[in-house]
Each structure stands twice: as C-alpha cells, then as structure tokens.
Design a protein that fits this description.
With 827 residues, the chain is of the alpha/beta class. It contains 26 helices and 33 strands.
C-alpha cells in the first residue's frame, strides 16, 4: 500500500509544470495596544531580566525535504520554581522539553524542531503532527506547496493540508500552550481511525510557546520589552523572525493565534476596517463559517463563563477590533494564504488577578481557558479536514490572482451574513515598485533584504532600463507586482490611507510604510509597459564604499542608522574624528583602512571631506526611555546608561554622561533635592533630547527651551507629511515622519529653531481626528512645529520631538534624526 501511494504521489508531481519564469522565484528557504501610554510612563532599565539569559544554541530547523518524523533530542532546562505558570497549574517552560522528548520516543507521528531562540536564549519549539513520510514523499509535498504558491492547481486529495496553531505570543496569556499540549498528545497517541486519517491528510504545526521568556516571567512583552503581536512586518525581535519563517515555510490553509483574556471568549473575524490589500472574499467565506463553529464548540463545553462568545465581525462596532494593520500574527498570516484568527480565551488570570486571587481560583480559571483553547483547535482541525479541497482551491486562487495581476473582487452585501458597505475595503495594486540608491544605499539594501525575507519577490536589473518615462541605472531593484504575495508586498510598500473618517476608533496603529519611513528611494509605477532585464534577488548587493581619493580626509553623512553605527564603531576604537557644523563626520586620511572596514561592515559610503569641524568623541547617553527606544539607541552604537526618576533619586554619576534622552519614566518635579542638584549641574554642560509628553514636561519643569507643547488627539497615529528646516536635525530628514499621541510646539522663544513642521495636509496614512470639543485635530496641527531645537539659558543644547522617530523599532529612516540631535546637543 505504501509503495502504491508513493507511486501515485510521484505521478501527480510529474504532471505539475515547473514554476513559471519571468518573475523572481521564491527565495526559499482584549488585544491591547502595545508600547502605548506606558511608553511615556515607564522607563526601561537594565536589570536582572537580561542576566537570566541562557546560552543559545544554533537552530536545527530541518531541510524542507527531510521526511517525517524529524526527531530532535531537545536540551532540557533546570527546574525554575519562579516560573509564573506554576501557580496556575500550567506547564512551566522547563517541563516542555522532557514532555516533547518523551512523545517523540513514543510516537512516530510527532516531530519537534528548534526554529530559533528567544531573546534570552530559550529554544522555540515547532511541533509537527502528521503521518510518517519518506524524504521522497516530503519532496513531493513541498512541490505541491510551491505549486499552490504559483497559483496552479494540485491534486487536492494528495496534498496534506497545512494548519498552524500559534500559542502564548503574549507571555502572560499562558493557556494556549497547555491546550495545544492536550491536542498534541491526543494526535500523537490516539488509535482511533479518524485521528489516523486526519494525520494522513494533514500536517498540523504548533508553535508551542512563541514567547517563553514572557511565559516564565509572567509579562506580556518579551525580554526586550516588545509586544510581539505588533512586530510582524518590522520583525525586529528574534521570536517574530522565527514565527515569520514558520508561516512562510508551512503556508497554512488556516491558523489560530491563541490569546487571552476577553470575557466569554472572542473569536475573529474582525470588525472593519479590514486591510485593503486582502482578497477578502477568499478569507471571509471560510473565516466566518469556522468562527461560528468554534463558537458552538466553546458553548458546548458547558462553562457558564464562556456561554456567549463574541465574534467582532458580527457583534462589535466598526473599529473596536479591526483587521487593518499587518502587525498582528493573524492579519500577517493572511498575506501568506491563511484563513486566520485571533482567539481570546475568557477568564483573566494575569496582571492584578494573578497576585490578588487564590491559587485555587486561578487554577479553576486556567482549566476553563485550556478547555476553550482545546475546543477551538479541535474544531479548526475538523473544519480544515471537512473543507480541505475548497481551502486548497481558495489559497491557490489568492496566489493566482496575485501572479496574474488581477483586480480585487467586488464583494456584494450579504456575501456572508452581515457583510455590508462598512466591510468593503480595496486598493489598486501598482504595476511595480523600483528601489534605488538615490537617497541612501544602506536603506535600499535593508529594504530589499526585508522584502526578500518576507517572501516578496525582488529582481535586480542587469542593465539600465526605463519605466514610466524614467531612466534607472543597472543595479536598481524592481518589485514586479504580478506575484503571488502581492498583498504582502503592497502592504509594506504602499503609502496607506487616511482612514480617519472611516472608523470612529481604531484598535492600534493605522499607518505604516516601509517606502515612506525606511529611508530608501522607492518609485511607484502605476501602470504601463513593463520591460527590464533582471535576475531574482536572494540578498541585496553590498553597498559600502570609500570614494575619496587616497590621502584625502573622508566624510560620512548621517542619513541612515547604518551611518550612525559606522560612526560610533569608529569612535569606539578611539579614533580622532571631527564633526562639521552640517553634521558630517570627518575621518582623517590616516584612518582610511578603518573607514574601509566599517564601510564593508555597515554598507556605508565615505566621500571626500571638506576642511574644518570640531573634535568628536563617542557619546555616553543617560536615557529614560521605552524599550523600543533603548533598542534603537543601542543598535545605533551609542553607549547608553538607563535611568528613571527612581534611579536618579538613588544616586547617579553624571560625570561621564554627554547627553540626556528623556522619553519615559523621568519626572523632574519628583526628584529629591540631591538628585535635582546633580541633574541641574549636568544641564550646564550636557545636551538634552526629549520625546513625547514626558519629554515636553521635563523641558518645561527644568526650564530649558521656551516652547509650549500642544497635545494632539491622544489616539492619533500614523505616517505624517512634514516640511524640514535647515537646522542640525531637520537637514537631510525624510519628508515623512511617524506620530503616536502627537504633539506640536507653539510660543517659541528667541533662538528656538523649527527643525520640522507638520505639512499642510498632515496625515499621509493613519487615523487622526479632533476631540469631541474640536481640539487636537489635523487642522490644528497643520503647519505647526513638530521638532524644535535651541540653547537653554543655562547653556544646554536641547531638541524636542513631538513625533515618534523610534516607535517600535519601525520607522528606520528616522533614526538618523535622533542621532544627529544627540551629536549636536552633546557637542
């Protein structure tokens, strides 16, 4: 029987045409707002959390063509009695590897791979349940997967339906892991015929705990302080990169992201606005149907606490649980062909409840939650098995439309019960994007690498070409939008939309754009002839160069974070650099070899320097910052000492500090007399850079710059148009910035320079309207000062940001602004 099945598979694979040519081929191989108000209130500090790091081992992610089972002897971890899951009666992280090792020995249906490590070095487990496969059968399944991605039909009866279950992405939402363990054990050991047939027809992938560091510590965020369910198109965290690899590699037909906690249980689909880049007709027909079945399964458990599950699409007002941003697991997975869901289990056991409630009550709640997780997973497995042919055709059609460059379909009212005009969002895909080195070579390379990493197909021109009437040089990159995952390409590269009038509220950010915020030059070809000679890209070409003549001093212009990192690298070696008034960093001719080294390392370009400039040393920054700001500053190469009000009150040595950055957790008025005196003494010689409400308050309390902060609508966010000045921060800045709870500055004192203003049309993409009393809207912000600089009466050089130039490690093209502010203020 085995040989017969293999023969059928081989015959089926043989009739599948080879991938088409012409377009670059695959490169292979209670949601709560994160980083929101707490970004201003809580300073991120260096602490013992980082000291708990375990030694990371290399990943052992299997080759796609290796058969199943793929047994891995997982390293085990010492028992940790401080693991916060223990109190809930749930599985502590240290118990997972022994359980999985035992299951792998017990059953040939279960495979475990280590697909990465957490920030502290804990292994990330991908557990796969499927009937055994030979390497040849696995190669055939991979061919089927690739064929579906090409938008061509496969024999649905032979293609194993991939399903992905993601768990515990928020560390203090534990029970997804435990519900998944129940299902894993059942699938691995059950002898009933239905289970065996299911595993012959399916591959079921479990990311057992997406955030093991947060699971152990009982925190929503990972060890770096990031909300992982806000990081998917940025992929700044190792846990997100692992999840992104899993979804690209497995190409699931359906996926669940198990969260908590919403009373009664919440099951997506979402409310509008729905992402405008989706082929939403292909999502909603199965998305709503399985959502209703999961609702029934949860009700059938008989728990009064989960008797009335909520489906936002059906039950919530517009915007209260939207599917607009691609930053969430479920919404990101849709671009890889998945019908996907966020599930919110019902009984809160974290935060204050964790500390206040008796262990017995917490364990009762966790048992209910685990039951709900198990019910949603089992229902989804059954749904996929019952509808596998339709789901495979559904995914194939999504990719076919992309490759063919077809328009999105009009979805009529009533397409599924409740679908109406408020659910209708669409876009017009351009014919192509062209990425050049015109503005910043490192930024262009970074953007290309990011796109390729996310399975977007990019080609590099072999010779010069013309598109849309513009001539481009050889080496330019082209994103042909006739490709299977065009929705993902477009959601990263498009400008986006101002949806202020389309929803009264939005759950989280409403604007983002790699094209506008990442610092590269990107042109849009909307339509027209499309011919050029290119080759598929697996990685961007090197961009580093030293263009100055031998014997000449070298100049480095700080237009990108890579430029800043290169400058700080050289400074950390003790080299005698200079800084010109225009912000250019000058490297002496005698240090050409060091310049060449960092040019190659960071992809930056040195040109011939002009004479002049003052001596420059590496800057030490005292930083009261949020987690995302801390990561950016350290990635930029600054020597950062984290502080807060409490740290200063306990005594802080200012003697080696060159500049103070204030974004979160520092209140001047709450400093004791000794701390205030020490800070005031520093302010007579050191620089100050501030961001947001906390920074503006610090500026006013410390009596630095005369500039009155005006708060925009607190929930406003997105990509904004700006007009740059010619000061030390505005020079070379991008024409766009990012805001979240924006500010602007009025009543500027003598000598205060406007570095950047909001444009006459403020929002390029996002959500910003006035408060109910008419204040704080876009009209009020138009033309106002968004970033200012000046020298205080005590001599301190100060820069105030009303924008968010380091938000969630996303707007990478804005980081150099912050670096220029720090270098200038500390000079």
């Amino acid at each position: 029987m085995r040989r017969t099945l293999l023969a059928v598979l081989l015959a089926a694979a043989a009739v599948i045409a080879a991938p088409t040519t012409g377009t670059a081929q695959p490169s292979s191989p209670d949601r709560e707002p994160g980083n929101g108000p707490e970004r201003n209130e809580v300073a991120t500090l260096d602490n013992a959390f980082q000291a708990q790091s375990v030694l990371a081992q290399g990943e052992n992610q299997a080759d796609r063509h290796q058969g199943y089972p793929r047994r891995t002897t997982l390293r085990t971890y010492p028992e940790n009695t401080a693991d916060k899951s223990i109190k809930l009666g749930l599985a502590p992280y240290h118990s997972l590897a022994p359980k999985l090792n035992a299951l792998q020995q017990k059953s040939n249906r279960v495979s475990v791979e280590v697909v990465g490590q957490s920030g502290l070095g804990r292994d990330l487990y991908l557990v796969t349940l499927t009937a055994p496969e030979s390497a040849t059968e696995t190669r055939i399944q991979e061919r089927f997967r690739a064929t579906v991605e090409e938008g061509r039909n496969v024999p649905a009866g032979l293609y194993k339906a991939p399903i992905w279950i993601n768990n515990n992405i928020h560390g203090d939402e534990w029970e997804g892991t435990d519900g998944a363990l129940r299902v894993i054990e059942h699938l691995a050991t059950s002898n009933d015929a239905d289970t065996k047939k299911l595993l012959q027809r399916s591959r079921i992938y479990f990311n057992l705990t997406a955030n093991p560091d947060g699971r152990v510590a009982g925190t929503r965020a990972n060890s770096a302080g990031f909300d992982l369910n806000r990081d998917f198109v940025t992929s700044s965290q190792p846990e997100n990169r692992a999840m992104q690899d899993v979804v690209e590699r497995t190409q699931p037909l359906m996926m669940l992201d198990e969260h908590g906690y919403v009373a009664n249980t919440l099951i997506e689909p979402t409310t509008p606005p729905h992402g405008q880049n989706y082929d939403f007709d292909l999502y909603i027909k199965h998305g709503y149907a399985n959502g209703l079945l999961m609702e029934k399964a949860v009700q059938a458990l008989g728990h009064p606490e989960a008797a009335k599950p909520e489906i936002p699409f059906r039950d919530y007002p517009v915007g209260e649980w939207d599917g607009w941003a691609p930053i969430y697991t479920a919404q990101y997975a849709m671009y890889h062909g998945a019908v996907s869901y966020t599930i919110e289990i019902p009984m809160r056991v974290n935060r204050g409840d964790y500390d206040a409630l008796p262990a017995a009550e917490l364990q009762r709640r966790s048992k209910i939650n685990t039951d709900v997780v198990e019910a949603t997973i089992k229902t989804t497995l059954d749904y996929v098995d019952d509808n596998r042919r339709s789901l495979i055709e559904n995914q194939t059609e999504m990719f076919r439309r992309g490759a063919a460059g077809e328009k999105q379909r009009y979805i009529p009212d009533g397409f599924v019960p409740g679908f109406g005009p408020e659910d209708r969002f669409s876009t017009e895909f351009p014919r192509a994007y062209v990425i050049t080195n015109d503005r910043s070579a490192p930024a262009a390379a970074r953007l290309v690498d990011q796109l390729v990493r996310h399975d977007v197909r990019v080609e590099r021109a072999e010779r010069s070409f013309t598109l849309g009437g513009k001539r481009y040089p050889a080496g330019s990159y082209v994103v042909d939008m006739h490709q299977p995952k065009r929705g993902l390409a477009n959601v990263m590269l498009e400008q986006g939309s101002d949806i202020s009038d389309k929803a009264p509220v939005m759950y989280d950010i409403s604007g983002w754009s790699h094209r506008l915020l990442w610092g590269a030059s990107v042109d849009v070809l909307k339509s027209g002839q499309f011919r050029f000679d290119g080759k598929p890209v697996t990685a961007a070409s090197p961009t580093g160069a030293v263009d100055a003549a031998p014997g000449a001093d070298l100049a480095l212009t700080l237009t990108d974070q890579k430029d800043v990192s290169a400058a700080n690298d050289l400074l950390s070696r003790g080299l005698e650099l200079r800084r010109r008034d225009d912000g250019t960093i000058v490297v002496p001719a005698r240090e050409r070899a060091a310049a060449q080294e960092v040019a190659d390392r960071y992809g930056v370009r040195f040109t011939t320097a002009k004479a002049g400039g003052e001596a420059l040393q590496r800057k030490v920054i005292a930083a009261a910052v949020s987690a995302d700001e801390l990561q950016v500053l350290r990635e930029s190469g600054f020597d950062v000492r984290t502080i807060s009000t409490a740290v200063l009150n306990a005594g802080f040595d200012w003697s080696r500090i060159d500049a103070l950055y204030v974004g979160a957790g520092l209140n001047y008025t709450q400093l004791n007399a000794t701390a205030k005196a020490a800070l005031d003494e520093f302010l007579k010689r050191g620089g100050v850079v501030t961001r947001g409400a906390t920074g503006s308050r610090f500026n006013a309390d410390a009596k630095l710059l005369q500039a009155t902060p005006v708060a925009g609508w607190e929930d406003a966010n997105g990509v904004v148009n700006v007009v740059n000045g010619t000061g030390p921060v505005g020079t070379n800045a991008l024409p766009h910035s990012f805001v979240y709870s924006p500010q602007w500055f009025t009543n500027l004192g003598t000598g205060v320079t406007v570095e950047q203003r909001y444009g006459s049309t403020v929002i390029a993409a996002g959500h910003w309207h006035a408060r109910d009393n008419g204040t704080g809207g876009q009209d009020a912000a138009a033309g106002q000062a968004a970033v200012v600089s000046g020298t205080a009466a005590n001599g301190a050089k100060v820069v105030l940001f009303g924008t968010e130039p380091m938000f969630r490690n996303h707007p990478k093209g804005l980081y150099a602004q912050v670096a220029r502010a720090l270098f200038w203020s500390a000079s």
